[in-house]
Design a protein that fits this description.
single chain; Endonuclease III, domain 1; mainly alpha
Length: about 140
């Protein structure tokens, strides 16, 4: 059995083993979850969920984040802590998404981990919660 086949089996069984498990971050699409997950580093999900409604209303596409002035984005996410690094990571990731992926969040671990500010943990959150059909 390949790894992919094992993962597919686990995905089917997981809801039975953990029926109430869900992502605590509020999001509507993979791009929003990627941003929220980057913001969640060294912050609480509750704090991130307080910041993201206004953020997601203002920045709807990856290009919107790229075009945002660094200081403006930093101010919008300041309460999550480490806001300068997070803003740089978000803008870098969004730039790569626009330039290399046609504005769409990549659907593989390798491509996600190649984005600035995205490691395996963030990639796993996005893949498992917003892109589970891509597995």
């Amino acid at each position: 059995m390949t790894t992919r086949e094992r993962v597919k089996q686990l995905i089917k069984v997981w809801p039975k083993v953990y029926p109430t498990a869900h992502c605590e971050l509020d999001f509507r699409n993979p791009l929003q979850l990627l941003v929220a997950t980057i913001l969640s580093a060294q912050s609480t999900d509750k704090r991130v969920n307080m910041v993201t409604p206004a953020l997601f209303k203002k920045y709807r596409t990856a290009k919107d984040y790229v075009d945002a002035p660094q200081a403006e984005l930093e101010n919008a996410i300041k309460s999550t802590g480490f806001y300068r690094n997070k803003a740089r990571s978000i803008r870098g990731s969004m730039r790569a998404i626009v330039e290399k992926h046609g504005g769409k969040v990549p659907e593989t671990m390798e491509e996600l981990c190649a984005l600035p500010g995205v490691g395996r943990k963030t990639a796993n959150v996005v893949l498992g919660n917003a892109l589970s059909s891509a597995i």
